[in-house]
Design a protein that fits this description.
It is built from 21 helices and 15 strands. It is of the alpha/beta class. It has a domain at about 5-100. It has a 7-stranded mixed beta sheet with strand order 4-9-8-7-10-11-15, sandwiched between helices. The longest helix has 20 residues, at about 275-295.
Length: about 525
């Protein structure tokens, strides 16, 4: 059967005009739940309003994952297996199962190598509100963020270690693969200043490669770029912009084979982002490539950046901090939040649940449920696939860096008016949204810490008390973990506040909630 579709796709049937992403998402989550709760798995399969009710099932995965240290591995194995058996791959009008994609006939990718023109020594600083934070000023800001609950202590400690070890930033000995190299929240700009060997994978697109080539040109790194044709060494920059690149969704096996043939140890970073259902597909493409390359090259490391607007197991002290913040609200804050909650029919300002869940390791953990329904189940599924692979890969002996990055005012976020307004008003609840340049600097350094520091939880030789602690360490959630309210019931009011403070002259009244 021929088709006009190309590359990695959600499955379709003869009766469908277009694929049902909700159906596939339900099936994957239900399969993951089946390994720990049969009844809830059945309920997920029968859920008719997946678009609104999905947070319930994602939270259940975490709840069951906490109970014992084998459950997260079972959940991840079942979920990934179902995901890889659910998608399809189209090539030359023919449909294939995605699990068979690496066996397809491929056209080998060629490599273009370019060296940056700078001879500058590696340097790291954090751009923040018009300043370049380094040394003591950076250490002071880290302490401020830690004291305010914006970052976890382990995050601040990791960056303190980076300040103490500037030699870590000479990456001339590392070959780093960036899937979605030109990503706004990605580390390309910093890696280009740290002498890294960068294998950049991004779409064949003149605008994208103009950005990548310009970044490399002004740095001290070496670029390795894929191309479907062999280009001469004296190719002009204009030619390179037109011809470099590879598509993760349509050239999945080609990219995997290209990387597997490298003579170097690789550090693979899954940072590509696309809107809507494409984000699930690109996460699946990256997962398939990372799985294939890791099998061929077992010393490969993996890197992911988690979103704070998800649901996580968290340490006991995080739950206690949230509970204390709720208890210490002033009378005026309590009165106003209760009034607004009543007017909104309990939609706003629902209390954060502060229950602790005992695990079989003798410790208890809480849950930080920061899912934002507006981001949708596809976004949640894409990020869950990444968490599952990270959990399994580390358990199987790979170095895995997976850290929660703060809410960041990237274009992909701020083009949603509701999310933009919510971030503008997040300060009302002691939550901080970071600018892209600040997030880039922080998260790039955190990755280097995980690659260099043998005491990092990324190191599989370091024993964890529970697999889910991998996502707890190093978290910069911007304060979302420690808010007094269930995040998605406070953020709508934060959006009202953010819009009002930006557009209307009623700031003093709205600030009463924060300053009372």
């Amino acid at each position: 059967m021929s088709s006009s579709l190309e590359g990695l796709q959600f499955p379709t049937t003869a009766s469908q005009q277009k694929p049902s992403t909700s159906k596939v998402g339900r099936e994957i989550i239900a399969e993951a739940l089946a390994s720990v709760d049969h009844n809830l798995s059945v309920q997920a399969m029968q859920e008719k309003n997946w678009r609104k009710q999905y947070p319930k099932y994602f939270k259940a995965l975490v709840q069951h994952g906490i109970l014992n240290d084998q459950a997260p591995l079972d959940i991840a194995t079942s979920g990934l297996n179902k995901a890889h058996h659910s998608f399809e791959f189209y090539r030359d009008g023919q449909k294939h199962l995605f699990i068979d994609v690496m066996s397809l006939a491929t056209q080998p990718l060629h490599t273009i190598q370019l060296k940056g023109e700078s001879e500058a020594a590696p340097e790291w600083y954090v751009p923040y509100k018009g300043q370049k934070l380094q040394g003591d000023t950076l250490l002071a800001q880290l302490q401020t963020w830690q004291d305010a609950g914006i970052v976890e202590p382990s995050h601040a400690d990791a960056l303190r270690a980076c300040v103490a070890h500037p030699e870590w930033f000479d990456l001339s000995d590392r070959t780093i693969v960036l899937f979605g190299a030109a990503s706004e929240a990605g580390p390309l700009t910093w890696l280009s200043k740290w002498k890294a060997n960068i294998a950049a994978v991004d779409l064949p697109n003149t605008r994208i490669w103009s950005k990548i080539l310009d970044t490399i040109k002004h740095g001290n790194a070496t670029l390795y770029a894929p191309c479907i044709e062999a280009l001469s060494e004296d190719s002009t920059e204009a030619e390179l912009k037109e011809k470099l690149g590879a598509n993760l969704l349509t050239q999945t096996p080609e990219i995997a084979h290209w990387l597997a043939q490298s003579q170097h140890q690789l550090d693979l970073a899954a940072i590509a982002y696309l809107d809507g259902e494409k984000h699930v597909r690109v996460s699946m493409a990256m997962d398939a490539i990372m799985q294939y390359v890791s099998a061929k090259k077992p010393d490969t490391s993996l890197m992911y950046m988690c979103t704070p607007t998800d649901v996580y197991a968290v340490p006991k002290e995080v739950v206690e901090a949230s509970e204390l913040k709720f208890a210490q609200r002033s009378p005026k804050q309590q009165w106003m939040s209760k009034g607004i909650s009543a007017l909104s029919r309990q939609h706003f300002f629902q209390k954060n649940l502060h229950d602790l869940i005992p695990s079989n390791n003798g410790k208890s953990y809480g849950i930080a449920d920061c899912l934002v329904v507006e981001q949708g189940p596809n976004y949640a599924l894409a990020k869950r696939i990444q968490q599952w692979r990270a959990t399994l890969a580390r358990h199987n002996g790979q170095r895995v860096s997976i850290n929660i990055a703060p809410s960041t005012t990237t274009h992909s976020v701020t083009k949603n008016p509701l999310l933009k307004a919510a971030f503008n008003g997040a300060e009302l609840f002691d939550v901080e949204a970071f600018s892209p340049e600040t997030t880039n600097a922080i998260m790039a350094a955190l990755w280097i810490h995980d690659l260099r520091n043998p005491e990092s939880v990324a190191n599989p030789e370091l024993k964890l008390d529970h697999p889910l602690e991998l996502m707890m360490e190093g978290a910069n959630h911007g304060g979302l973990w420690r808010v007094a309210y269930l995040a998605r019931t406070a953020l709508p009011f934060a959006a009202v506040y953010g819009f009002a403070t930006d557009k209307l002259p009623i700031k003093p009244m709205l600030r009463m909630l924060k300053k009372a």
